[in-house]
Amino acid sequence: MADGRARVAASILDSDLSNLQYAVHRVQKAGADRIHLDVMDGHFVPNLTFGAKTIKHLRPRTELPFDAHLMVDEPGRFLDEYLDAGCDSITFHVEIDEDIAPTLRRIRAAGRAAGLAVKPATPLSALEPYRELLDIVLVMTVEPGFGGQSFMKDVASDKLLAARDLLSHKAFGAEVHVDGGINRETAEFAGGLGVDILVVGSALFHKGRDMAREIRLIRALADEGYQYTLNDGVPPIPRDRMVTFTSLPRHIARRFMDEIEAGGVPVVMLRGDGQINPDGIRDYDLLVPASTETLVRERHTAARDAYERDADVWREEFIAEHGVIPPPGPP
Ligand code: DX5
Ligand code: ZN
User: Fold this and answer.
1) What pLDDT is stored for residue 61 in this prediction?
2) C-beta of 4 in contact with ligand 1 (< 6 A)
3) Does residue 13 line the site of ligand 1, with CB under 6 A?
4) From 40, 119, 142, mutation site for ligand 1 pocket: most ligand atoms within 8 A of C-beta
């Protein structure tokens, strides 16, 4: 997992489409974080690419997550095929005529991330009615249909920060994607508007350029933009770093973990270096993603103190009843 905050999703639209297996290998080797799959049906956009069947065949060829970007008229009609193909997230356009909410619900019910995309001329307010159903907002900074077009800076300025607000209902894991015209010239600007995922197509496939270096550069520039524009010069925290919130005896830790997770924050429970309890078993550590630490403190500090007191009472009672059981020795 790369350091820092921004992630690159490689669009293979501009690769040699006769050899997609090679394209996904190549972007994986170059360090891309995801693969962005541009599906076009020749109706919603004046271009035709590939569909669910191609994605299904590509699925076993790489371990990278698949983000499907469906530029099609009827995503709902064909949704099962894209779910079956193994897409990790599915994003489709708000400008379609089909009903939108049921499709978003089905994507989420299948355990995948659900997203809506907006063309440059579509206002973000079009997404308002669906905000509670969204994991991803994809802002298009070129007209959908073709790779290799120029980045629309005004669209990015208008929409990228506002897209973050649309996802405020999600405590963790919400993503703003920027798609179109991202390269080493535009990455810093987009990063400064807080995007999580930069979709990069043609910039990766320029002849004579080192793809791995291009990906590192784009990520680093986006993080710089974030650091200086949004974060008072503080370097962006790695998104996936976990921090210990508390350590508790196992039965109490489990209960508290469920409570925190009910608020949408994933918790990892680990048998850590905590103190050894009278039952001979060490305390378990509860870890939360660094990006949620402030939120978790705000929400759960009072409960944490109460659970820590419960743990003390339990320890005393255990000793009164059973004495102290020595920890299991080395095997
Ligand atoms: C355009 C696609 C984009 C595009 C990105 O319709 O959605 O994903 O391929 O390519 P570049 O980075 O070349 O704009
Ligand atoms: Zn795309």
Assistant:
1) 96
2) no
3) yes
4) 142
Using pLDDT thresholds of 50, 70 and 90, give the confidence band for residue 273: confident
Of 179, 196, 223, 285, the catalytic one is 179
CA quadruple 188, 68, 51, 55: dihedral sign: positive
| pLDDT tens digit sequence for 275-327 | 899 999 999 999 999 989 999 999 999 999 999 999 999 999 999 999 999 88
| Structure letter (DSSP) for residue 326 | P
**Does residue 2 surpass a pLDDT of 80?**
no
- Output the CA 199–ligand 2 centroid distance in Å: 7
Q: Has residue 163 got a pLDDT over 80?
A: yes
Higher pLDDT, 264 or 82: 82
73 is catalytic: no
Which sign does the torsion angle of CA 250, 255, 256, 260 carry? positive
Atom of ligand 1 nearest to the CA of 149: 14
200 CB near ligand 1 (under 6 Å) = yes
Pairing type for strands 242-248 and 282-289 reads: antiparallel
Give me the residues paired with residue 265 across strands.
none
pTM of the model: 0.89
- Determine the distance separating the centroid of ligand 2 and the alpha carbon of 7, expressed in angstroms: 15
Radius of gyration of the chain (CA): 23
Is any atom of ligand 1 closer than 6 Å to the C-beta of 205? no
- CB atoms under 10 Å from CB of 78, counted, come to 15
Give every CB contact of residue 218 below 8 A, 6+ residues apart in sequence: 6, 8, 182, 183, 184, 187, 198, 200, 203
The alpha carbon of 254 and the centre of ligand 1 are apart by a number of angstroms equal to: 44
What is the average pLDDT across 12-25? 95
Structure tokens at 305: 């103190």
Q: Is 33 a catalytic residue?
A: no
pLDDT score for 238:
80
**What is residue 80's three-state secondary structure?**
helix
Decide whether any atom of ligand 1 lies within 6 Å of the 181 Cβ.
yes
Within 13 Å of residue 138, how many CA atoms lie on the same side as its CB?
29
DSSP state of 48: B
